[in-house]
Write a structure and sequence with these properties.
By secondary structure, the protein is α/β, with parallel strands linked by helices. The protein is built from 15 helices and ten strands. The strands form two sheets. Strands 3-4-2-5-6-1-7 form a seven-stranded parallel β-sheet, sandwiched between helices. A three-stranded antiparallel β-sheet has the order 8-10-9, covered by helices on one side.
């Protein structure tokens, strides 16, 4: 497959990379640009081979010249693979910004079916894409998709649009209406599917293999995404995930089988599983399996006094988070930075609901104890737990201030910690 000339820069991509340089440094910005160039080159080449030359690339028109008809063509799917929390969203934004310079005009971003995470993703795109396509999200078209579509005519053939939606059946149905009414098929399209191995695949495939396919329908999200791909027929579909096994193992003729894969490289400050799970690692708190069982057994119980059983391993991990966050707050140059603790112990929402109650109760009691609003014994226990965490962190942070200095600040900050329940538990200290 011959390479079609592409643009390697533009106002939108340059603005985004300048932002990355100021936050993460030149090395990370250059790595992002290299990944974006590789992905966009693949997208332009495959698009041109499948649908014809002239629509996208350095000399592209941004208008579909040869409307594709029929089923989703093979080979129009790509994969962006990256380690957990390694900056895949930044790679996606950089790719989108560079694709805009190469005349892709409609960008669809699919996120997990989680309203809070979806809004976070939509905000990141809106805040970081400047001087390029205009960003919208499902909240803006949910009430009247057809009226909303009328607004897009001013943008879609000009600088382009970014449409962010959760993988929710109703939201995707509305997105399909928007795309049809806005005549999105008239412009080259890129679809970004975040966590593409979650919900996007045909989850009924095993049932269909056991029975006649006609008796078992495709799973709904898979079906609607296929309809979206057919609606914006001249498109490239980019899957994004840290766990690509199920995508790579699809049949060669399957629409979700990647035709190419690009690695999203983590920055120099990335800390991943190779550090956390090495032998005798200083960077992890080991929690015994019995603690998970203890948490799960509390699920669904009525607890009038909110006397939840906090396992010692989880308690140590939380105290490390609190002490570490206060240390970062006191030393960081970004005064608006947020510090997060993620807890994911089971696939059941009721388990995380229990975990939320356990952690919330612990935070409230720890806060009271530090401010001497409870018994002397509870304050002594609180200081003992924080001391254990301080000793743990001291193994990897040689310049950690004395615990007493951190506790003074923690007495004022801890009450601002908020536990947010999603498909996992997210703890925010800001």
């Amino acid at each position: 497959m011959s390479k079609i000339p592409i643009k390697n820069d533009g106002y939108c991509i340059n603005r985004f990379l300048d932002r990355i340089k100021s936050k993460l440094g030149n090395t990370e910005a250059e790595q992002l640009k290299q990944a974006a160039v590789e992905i966009v080159q693949n997208c332009v080449d495959i698009y041109s081979t499948t649908f014809g030359c002239g629509d996208v690339g350095d000399q592209g028109t941004g208008i579909v010249s040869n409307h594709y008809k029929g089923q989703i063509p093979n080979g129009t799917t790509g994969l962006i693979y990256g380690k957990v929390q390694s900056g895949k969203t930044n790679t996606t934004i950089a790719t989108l910004a560079l694709a805009e310079a190469n005349k892709f005009r409609c960008f669809i971003v699919l996120t997990s079916d989680n309203t809070w995470l979806g809004k976070q993703t939509a905000d990141r795109f809106a805040n970081q894409i400047k001087g390029g396509p205009v960003v919208f999200n499902w909240e803006q078209w949910r009430n009247d998709p057809l009226e909303f579509a009328n607004q897009l005519h001013d943008y879609i053939n000009d600088t382009g649009v970014v449409l962010v939606s959760t993988k929710n059946v109703r939201h995707l149905d509305n997105l399909l209406k928007v795309l049809k009414s806005a005549k999105a098929r008239s412009v080259p399209t890129l679809i970004f599917d975040d966590e593409a191995d979650n919900a996007s695949l045909n989850t009924n495939q095993a049932k269909q293999a056991k029975k006649e396919k006609n008796t078992v329908p495709d799973s709904k999200i898979f079906e609607i995404i296929a309809q979206i791909r057919q609606r914006v027929a001249n498109h490239i579909y980019l899957q994004i995930t840290a766990t690509p096994q199920s995508l790579l193992l699809q049949n060669l003729d399957h629409p979700c089988k990647p035709a190419f894969c690009v690695l999203s490289k983590p920055g120099n400050n990335y800390i991943g599983g190779d550090i956390f799970f090495e032998a005798n690692s200083k960077h992890c708190c080991t929690i015994q399996a019995e603690e998970l069982d203890k948490l799960k057994k509390q699920g669904g119980k009525i607890n009038p006094g909110d006397n939840w059983d906090m396992p010692p391993g989880l308690r140590l991990a939380l105290c490390c988070f609190f002490v570490g966050s206060i240390y970062k707050m006191k030393s960081a140059t970004d005064i608006d930075a947020k510090y997060s603790f993620l807890a994911h112990i089971d696939h059941k929402r009721i388990t995380h609901s229990t975990l939320e109650k356990v952690i919330r109760s612990f935070v409230v009691e720890l806060d009271k104890a530090l401010r001497s609003k409870s018994s002397v014994t509870k304050r002594e226990d609180a200081l003992k737990w924080l001391s254990e965490a301080h000793a743990k962190l001291s193994k990897t942070a040689s310049n950690l201030p004395p615990l007493n200095d951190l506790v003074v600040e923690l007495q004022y900050q801890l009450r601002n910690t908020i536990a947010i329940l999603n498909d996992f538990l997210y703890l925010d200290q800001s």
